[in-house]
C-alpha cells in the first residue's frame, strides 16, 4: 500500500501540471499506450505467455469501462479543485466499495462498517458544504468518479482471485486504449518536451499504483485496502501546500478527521479479527 500511496501522489502532480494544456482523453490514451508496452514487456520477460489469456473478458470489460470513467472524472477534478479536496472526496470510494463488496462478493457489512460509511458521508457533507451553491461542479464530477472507481475496485477483487496482477493490468491497458483513441481523436495535440515528461510520469505512476493496489487486494479484504488508502489525504495536502500554495480550510480538516475516524473503526476491527 505504501507504493500505491506514493504512486497516486506522483500521478496527481503530473495531472495538475498537464491540466489545461493536454486534454484528459489524450492523457488517458498515452497512459494506456505506455502501460501496454511496459506490461507486455514484463510478461514476455517473465516467459509466462499464459498471462496474456483470460476466461473473464466480460468482467475485465466492465471493470475498465468504469475505471476509464473514474479516471476521467479524477483528472478533470484535479484541474478544478485543490488536490486535497479531490483526494478527500475520492475517499467516498470505500463507502461505495463496502456496499458493492457486500452485495456482489459476499463480504460482511458489519455494524462498524456501516458506522464508517455514515461518518464518511458526514465528512463529505462537511467538506463540500452542499448548502452553499448547492454543490460545485468539480465536486459532483469527483463524487461520480468515486462511484466508478468503487465498481472497478470491486471487480478487481473478484478478478484477483483467479487472474495475475499483470493480466489485470494488461487488459486494463488493452481495453482502455481504443476508448481513449476514439475520444481523443478531435483534441489531439503534440506535447512539448516538458509535457512529454509529465505524461510519462502519469503513465508510469498509474501503472505502479494499480500493480501495488492489485497485489494488496489479492492479500487483504477489499474494504480494508480502501480504508488504508485513506492516508493519501494528508500526504497530498502537504504536496498542495508546498507546490501549489493551496489553502487547507477548516472544513477540509474537520471533514477529513471525521472520515478518518470512521475508517479507523473498521481498521481496528479487522486487526483484532486477524490477531
TrEMBL record:
The lineage of its organism: Bacteria, Pseudomonadati, Pseudomonadota, Gammaproteobacteria, Vibrionales. It holds the Pfam family EamA. The chain crosses the membrane at residues 24-44, 65-81, 87-106, 113-128, 134-152, 164-185, 197-213, 225-244, 250-268. It is found in: Membrane. GO terms for cellular component: membrane. It is a multi-pass membrane protein. Residues 2-128, 137-267 form the EamA domain. Keywords: Membrane, Transmembrane, Transmembrane helix. It comes from Vibrio lentus. This is EamA domain-containing protein. It comes from the Bacteria.
